Structure formats: structure tokens, C-alpha cells
Amino acid sequence: MASGFCEDCSRLLEEFNFHLRKVCREFERKIKPIFRELCECTCFSVSPESSYLRRKRSLSLNDEELQLHEEERLQTLSRLSASEDIELQKTAAMFYLQLSHHLNSPLPDALLEPVMNLLLSSDLDVQKTISLALVNLLVKNTVCRASLVEMGMLVPLLDLIRSGDSSAQSHSCACVCLLASLSREAVMLEGVKPLLALAKSYDPREQQVASWALLHLTHSDWSRGLLGEAGGFPVLVLLLQGSDSEVQFYSCSALCNISSARELHPKLLSIGSHFLLKSLLTLASSSVQKNSMQACRCLRTLSQNDLIREQLMELDCVLPLQSLLKTPSAEWRESAVTLLSALTSHTPNKAVLVSEGLLEEVGQLLLRPTCSSVIITHSCSIITGLSGCSEGQQAVTEARCSSGLLGALLSPSLTDDTLIHLTSCLQNLMTQHPLKSELSVMITSEHVSRLVNLSGRSQNPQLSYNGAAVISRLEVTGETLQLLKPHYVAMLEYLSEFLKNKDLKFQQLGLVTISNLKTDGDFSSLLSGGEVEDQLRTVHDQTEETRRLLQTIQPLSPSPVHPLLPPHKH
């Protein structure tokens, strides 16, 4: 690019620049020794700590650099952490925090020594920073947990829980929880009681921190047992009654984990006057969806116990749960129907559930435009469970449960597992005469097509069997035969597979279906001379052979007890 100067001016400027550089270098050479001597004097000395602080501001951390300069850093961090200057302690704490974000390899144990000094600092900000750094290192698994416990870091961390500062409490609780999986003894002796004391605080923020920490101590068998021994269960139940929704959620989640261990149910139930169940039922009616769902989930886990199922019925749990079935939220409905399904499985509860109108609510639930697999599965369980008694059969008819089930059968998005529950429920209803007649009249061509399609799914034998069983139990009327007629070819295909199946229940189902349809001329024509007829002959021959062999075996008459055999017990 043109400079704008003539050739002479450009030459002169270059010479000027050359001499100027030469003069500057000479000047630097002469004053450098002077500045070196000044720096060596105590008047102008710079402390290692301050020097490190300046270097830290431009520090770029990586694993390789950490290893190359480990000894130098250790010496500097030791001086910073042991200093009485709070600002220098903050510098060391900030270094560890930055390190916790960038480090991807294990932190050398030697670099853990200054951490203890920082945890014991008199400055809360230093403690918060270093405890947060520890959380990051523990989460990333870049620090040896055993080393932290052996160095005694649990003690200052637990003291930090009592600090009253929510951030410090959160960081220290997180550290304690992450270390809990390593050292049972340490947590048993030092960890639980301070957390329980914090949970009893009147400050909602402190309760949040404590309940969150207690939740994370319920993920293993030994820690759940530990909480029980330390008197933690009543504290968690008490927190359900609080006004803070987060505290309620954490404590309910913890109780849900605890209730998964059936051996702990007696201790949970020992909290007087059904206090736990009453608290959970109250929370199930909460306007906070996640709390309501978690309470239902906890009750569902507890209801594996027959005694608890009876106690829930005594507490009039049905009406509030039925109210949840009417909510617009699918998640809410799923939580409620899952719990009600568990209550239905207990025989003494069935009559009460029928009288409370549960089948009516389930029928309405199935008739909704959108019905999830969870709702269909547990609705089928409820209908099957309650239809066994005479009152239940009448209630199923009046509640239009059959319409709901047949509507769900046409849903294209159901999984095979859900379809197995659904067809099993229909099959069960069709073993009861009044319901069989009702379903046979309600069946349409779409339902028949669906059932025939399911019956041909040889890759899922149970679903195939259930679909064919529903068809075999239809009342054989002119209308039914007209619905089945377009599907005779497809039916003969799955009937042939059934007759070849070594499982006798498939063979018997195939024979029943053929027996029902043989009166129809069109079916008999297709059957004649085909593969299914050959299979029938094979089954007949096998049956005759079995009958002949049985005839050769005479019934054994009663005989004296053999002296070498023990007497038969009646």
C-alpha cells in the first residue's frame, strides 16, 4: 500500500525508526539491573501470595499443567489457606472452585490438604466457596472420597450445616450425601442427627436443605435403616404437614423410598393414630400436582401390605381418590387409578369399593377421548377384581365399563402389554353369563377385525391366546357369524397354529372355536380338506393313543403303607 511519502522521506523515516529502537534497547539494558536490585530490597519486595494472586488471574487450568506444577501449587496453596488474611484464603478457595470446573482427571491427594484449612476458615464466604468446589469435584468423581473422610472433612461439613446460611447448608448437605455412600460409620455417628435437627427448624429454607439431604440418604438399604434408628421417620412425616411445597415433596419422596423396604413398614406404622397414612392422604389432595402424585405413589408402595390396605379403607380414602380421577390432568388420573387398583386386589375391600361407586368412575374414565396405557391397564385390573361378586357384575353393566373396554380395544397406540391386560379383562367378563350376553351384542365388525388380528400374532403367544379366547366365548348367533364370516381364512390360519402348539390350552381353545363355528356351512367348507382338518386328525389320533394308554393302567387300589415309606398324610 502506498505510504503517501516521497522516496526520500520514506528512507529518512526508516532510519529514524532504526536509531530509535537501538536507543530504547540500550536504555532498557542500562536500567534493568537497577530495577532488579530495587525488587530485591525489602522496601519493594512482593510476597509469594500476592505474586500467586496475579498469576492466578491469567491462569488457564488443565490436567497437564496441574501435574507439571503440582509441588509449586501445593506450597502456594498451603501458604494461602493457612494465612490469617481472609482475602488470601478467598484466593485459594476460588482456585479450587475454578479447578473443580475444569479438572477432568483425579485430583492428587496432596492438593486436598489445604482444603481442610479452608473448611475451618472463620469466613463464611470462604467456607461456601470451598464446599461448592467439593460438591463439583464429588459429582464429577474427580476426588477420592475415602481420602476426604479419612482427613476428617465430615466434621467441618456437618458444622457448616448449622451455619444458618442456606447456600452453605446446601453445599455441605450435598457433600455429606455424596460421601454417605462411602462411610456408613461416619454418617451414622456424625451425619444424621444434625440433619434431623435442621429439619425441625422453623425456617423453610433450612427445612428445604435438610429434607433434600435426607431424601438423598434414602437411596440404599443401610441408610434407610440408619434413619429409622436415628428417629428420622417421624420427622419426615411431620414435614409432610408443613406449608412449603418443596419440603413436602422432598420428605414424601424420602418416605416413598423408605416404604419400598417392606421390613420397615412396622416402624412406619408405629407412628401413632395412622398419622403417616392420614398425612399422605391429605397431601394426595394437594393442589400441587407433583406432591399429590408423589403421595399417591407412596401410598401405592405401602399398599402392598394388607394391613395398610385395610387401614386406608378405614380412613375413607376412596372419595378423595375418585375426585382425582375427574381431574383434567392425565398424570393425576394415572396416580389415583394406580392406587385404587392396589386397593382392589385386597378381597375384603371389594364390596366397599363397589358400594362407593368406583366402577362408575372407572367406566367414565375409559370413555374419555384419550386414555393412556397406564389408565387402561389399572382400570382393567379394577374391573376384573370387582366383577367377581354379584354386585360387581351389575355395577359393571350400569357403569358402561364394557363400552369403555371395547372403545379402548380399537386404540391403535396400545402396547402389547396393555392389550394383554385388556383382552384378559374382556375374556374374564365373558365367563360371566350376563356380561357375556352384553358384550356379544356390543361387538362390532371393527372389534372382530382387531381381535382376529391380535389372535394371529404368533410372536406374542399370550396376546394371541387372549384375542382368540374372546372370540371363542362370543355367543354363536346369526349376527355373530356374519361378523366372523369375512375373517374365516385368517381364523383358520391361527387355529392351525394353535392345534400344532404343544401347549394343551392352545389346542383346547382351537377345538372349542372350531366346535362353535362348525354349524356354519361356509366355515365347514373352508375347513374340509384343508390343513386345519389334517391337524384335527393328528390331534384325534394323539388323543386316542393317550386314551388307550390310560385304559391299560388300572386304578390303584388302597394298599398297606410300605414299611420303608412314610405314612400318607390326609
TrEMBL record:
Extent of the signal sequence: none
Keywords (A to Z) from UniProt: Lipoprotein, Membrane, Repeat, Vacuole
Membrane topology note: Lipid-anchor
Positions of ARM repeats: 231-263
InterPro entries per record: ARM-like, ARM-type_fold, Armadillo, Vac8
Location in the cell: Vacuole membrane
Name listed for the protein in its UniProt record: Vacuolar protein 8
UniProt GO BP: nucleus-vacuole junction assembly
Main location: membrane
